[in-house]
Please model this.
Amino acid sequence: MAKNILICGVGGQGTVLAAKVLSQAAISGGEHVLSAETIGMAQRGGSVTSHVRIGEGIFSPLIPKGQADIIISFEVAEAVRNIEYLKADGTVIVNKKVVQPTTASLTGKTFSEDEMISYLEKAAASVIAVDTQEACQQLKSEKVVNMVLLGAACKTGIIDKDELKAAIKLLVKPDFYELNCKAVDYFG
Model:
């Protein structure tokens, strides 16, 4: 059975690395994987979306709308923007932090974290809202948001934590391996 995981955020948050680690973990587990990124204006804080499809019978790397089992969102507004990809019984794992777009500062309009999470809770079967700021404070690094969110995804059973750690070992500089594993373990 295929597993479809959409990872979304804004440029510089580590979404592409998260997709690579997730893909490598599945490959190491003997799974067939197709993936693709849509990056756009990522270097300027724009949207980044990665599609990761795991399993047999997959012929396109892009997840059709309404077919994502899980959306892993590094920013709550990006989860809202991409909710149309989620299955009716799907799960959203979302970083509670709102990244206010440049246009918000120009117009004086802001986005409310609570309103967006409430919207997601109505649209998804399950929402796991993660306070990554607290996690990063405890881990003493702002650079592990991606692994904290992947660790939360392990709780859903979509990926094996040991395979995820093996993929981290292959893809992350050795100096950062232990820190990234601690981030994956943050949720137990």
